[in-house]
Amino acid sequence: MATHTLETPEADIVYDVHGPAPADSPRPPLLMVGQPMDATGFSTLASFFPDRTVVTYDPRGLGRSVRKDGREDHVPATQAGDIHGVIQALGVGAVEVFGSSGGAVAALALVTAYPDDVRTLVAHEPPIIEVLPDADAAERAGKGFRDAYQARGFGAGMAAFIAMTSWKGEFTDDYFALPAPDPAQFGMPTEDDGRRDDPLMTDRSLAVSAYQLDVDALTSAPTRIVIAVGEESVDVMTGRAALATAARLGQEATVFPSHHGGFLGGEFGYAGQPEAFARKLREVLEG
After folding, report:
1. Which helix (H) or strand (E) holds 15?
2. Mean pLDDT in each 10-residue stretch from start to end of the chain (287 residues)?
C-alpha cells in the first residue's frame, strides 16, 4: 500500500493505493468511498481485491485529511470535488467506484458534477431522505437523535441514532411515542463526556441526508449506476432510501449480502459478510 496526499488550498486529502499500480491493473482503479467512515473501514473489503488497484481515502475533515479552511461541515458536492482531484491524480482516466452510506451520496454527487470520471458506480444504501415517501417524518426522526446528542451526549445520541436506523418501515406515531432508548442497551456510554463534535451526531453532516438527487444529470451520464441494498436492511431507513433512489433513476436496487455495513470485517465491531459482499461487488462490477 502506498499513501499519498493531494494538497489543496482548503484541505490535504490523504488516500491509499492498494495492490498493483494503476497502470498495471487489469481493470480500472476501484475507489471505495465512505462517510463519515474514513479509509480504515474498507481494509477488509479491499483485501478481497488483491488483483487490481483499490484506492481508499479519508474525506476532508475526517481521519488523516486535515482541513485548512476553518469549516467543519460535510457537503457531498465538496467531497465530490475532492474525489475528482484524487481521480485526476491517478492519471488513468475513468475509474470504478463503490460508495457506502454518505460515501454513496458523495459518489452520486461526483457523477453529477464529473460524469466522465466514473465508468461504474455501485452506490450502497445512500441515506437520502427526500426520496422517501415519509420524508418529513424521517427528517423529524433525524432531528431527534441530533437533539438527544446535544442534550445528553454521545451515548444518548448514538442510542437514538441506532433506534432510528433500526426502525422498520415508515416513521409513524408509534415510532415517535417510543421512550428515549437506554444507551447501555446498545453498549454505549451512559456518561456525558461534554463533547459535541461528532460529525454524524450534529448538523455538520446534515447536507448528506438532505442531498437532492439530480435525476436528469445522473440518467444522462455515461456512467453505469447501480443502487445497492443489503438483504437485511430493505425495511429500515437506509434500505428504503436505496430502493426509492433506484426507483427515481428508473431501476431496481441490486440486493447485496448482509446489512448496511455488510462489507465490514472486525473494523468497528459491526461485522457483516465481507467475503460474500466482495464476491457480489466483483460480480456487479464485471457484469
Report:
1. strand 12-18
2. 96 98 94 96 97 97 96 96 98 97 98 98 98 98 96 96 96 97 93 93 94 98 98 98 98 98 88 97 96
- Kindly list the strands in the beta sheet with 12-18, ordered across the sheet, starting from the edge strand earlier in the chain: 2-7, 12-18, 54-57, 30-33, 95-100, 118-124, 224-230, 254-256
Angle between helices 154-166 and 135-152 (to 10 degrees): 160
Give CA–CA dist 224/226, Å, rounded. 7
Amino acid at 142: G
Give the distance from CA 242 to its chain's centroid. Answer: 12
Grid cell listed for 141 = 426522526
Q: Are strands 118-124 and 95-100 parallel, antiparallel or unpaired?
A: parallel
Cβ atoms of residues 64 and 14 within 8 Å: yes
pTM of the model: 0.96
